[in-house]
Amino acid sequence: MNVLSSIKNKFMRVPPDYEQLSARLGTFAPFDAARARIFRYRKQYGVNLGSMFCLEPWIATIIYDEYAEHNPEAEGDLVECMGQCSAEKMQAHWATWLQRADFEHMASMGINAVRLPVGYWILGHGFAAEKYHSHAKTYNRALYYVGRIIAWADEFDIGVLVDIHALPGGQNNDSHSGATGPARLFESRKHQDLAIKCIGAFAYLLAQVTNIVGLQIINEPQDHPQLEAFYERALKQVRVQSLTLPVYVGDAWNLDKYTGIVKGLRSRFGFVVLDTHKYWVFRPEDKQYPVEQLIKELRETDMPELLHASDELEGNLVIGEYSSILPAITCQGTDPTVSMREFSREQLHMYNSTTAGTFYWTWRLQHDAGFWSMQFAINEGAMPSEYFPFGWNLSVEPSHEVIVNEAEKRRSEWREKRLQGHMNYVSQWEGDFGFDHYAAGFDKGLTVALEFFSKLKFPSKLGFIRQFASECAISYVSQHGGSQWQWEYVDGFREANDEFSDFVSYIIHVKVQQ
Fold it and tell me: CA dihedral defined by 4, 10, 12, 14, rounded to 10 degrees?
């Protein structure tokens, strides 16, 4: 029995209060493992849905304006100001902040994933602490609106990464952690126990929902001495509910340190992903350099760091938040939109070549009159208007079926070409090699690439390639033996995806030129 199975079998009893939450979230179509595989493993071209459930006054301004004299910051401050009207006013916000048309719009431009920040308190009674405890009834309908977001996203083949943006006591000093003042999560065992309970509840609710990309168990935590142990507890709790649900953790603004930590966690808890955030507007040095200098830093400093982290984590790395925003002084003497466009192009090129996904912060502002709004940034030309893989373009959309059929015709040719290259490469070393494992991996990799490309309305490509390939390789060697050649299976799988990606990109390029 493996470690994950032993964890689940030891603690598999479902707490009664978890079961009571399901009715509030709503029902979904039966779990579709084939579709879920695409949502979870594909390259993510995403955006955050900031201030839908974890409110910030600079994003959702209107709901705060009425109480400006009290200067509420965290959502708990806001609901205290609202008093007995809090349930009515919060439901009005949840009902109007996002609509079905938002997801239709996202899908039309190639956005295939959203990161949905939520506060732990939306679980309501039995899961709330501090200010949220006395206002637990305010959130009786919150899960209904979470379910509505998930359902709308699913309708347009958009995956949802549920991000527990705020935990009891606050995991950082910012008000978006749900608390005003110093972080208290790691100073209180009671807060940590409640956080683990909430994480388990979210895992229970979401594990069997087809278009759930994963569960992020914490956002931007302080790099606290207890954080690594907290991750251990949280991952054990998630694995009680699901052995396969991808779990995302934050890097605490220390990518190198948490790359090593998450590398160890992946060996014990399976599909674990490290989330890092990239902003170029808050550091003092961001306000000292022209955009050309920041681009140079992107290429010479950030690129190697991300490449190293991605290699150590076998590709299980995402940019959970980024933006086109640059300081005004950086754009001095230039058109700010042009500078942001140039910088965003460099960012996306780097992030897409080193990570499994990106999520812009954020989809909208109250009046969408600033570049923090992805919609505004796109409309102003600071961000691209399409995010499809392979350079896909709706105006020259070729048939999925034609491309798949053409790829199948080339399967043997591609496999033999790549296998010969592999054989030539390993010939420099002595020893036995598993060329049949390489060929089997290539065939599986191409089959998966075709499935991802053709199963949904718009094409998808593998993002977590090594995670998927390694899982397939383990299954293959368990049936056929040769565990010493598992790496060759993985290499074949990856090269099949490279071959197919090059093929599709070439076809799209030719059609665009016609």
Answer: -130
Give residue 443's Cα distance to chain centre: 28
How many angstroms separate the CA atoms of 34 and 161, rounded? 18
- Measured CA to CA, the distance from residue 262 to residue 451 in angstroms comes to 29
What is the spatial distance between Cα 102 and Cα 106, in angstroms, rounded to a whole number?
A: 6
**Contact status, residue 339 vs residue 292, Cβ threshold 8 Å:** no
Interhelix angle for 486-513 vs 435-454, to 10°? 40
> Is 160 strand, coil or helix?
strand
Q: What is the pLDDT of residues 469-508, one digit of tens each?
A: 999 999 999 999 999 999 999 999 999 999 999 999 998 8
How far apart are the C-alpha atoms of 97 and 114, rounded to whole Å? 15
Exposure string of 311-327, with b = 16+ CB inside 10 Å and e = fewer, is ebbbbbbbbbbbbbbbb
CB 161 within 8 A of CB 214: yes
Q: For residue 495, give every residue at least 6 positions away whose Cβ sits within 8 Å of its Cβ, in sequence order, or none.
A: 418, 422, 442, 445
pTM over 0.85: yes
The first and second tokens of residue 498, run together, are: 């490279």
First to last CA, the chain: 57
Contact (CB, 8 A) for 330 and 291 = yes
Digit-coded pLDDT (tens) for 159-214: 999 999 999 999 999 999 999 999 999 999 999 999 999 999 999 999 999 999 99
CA distance 26 to 21: 9
* Dist CA 404 CA 381 (whole Å): 34
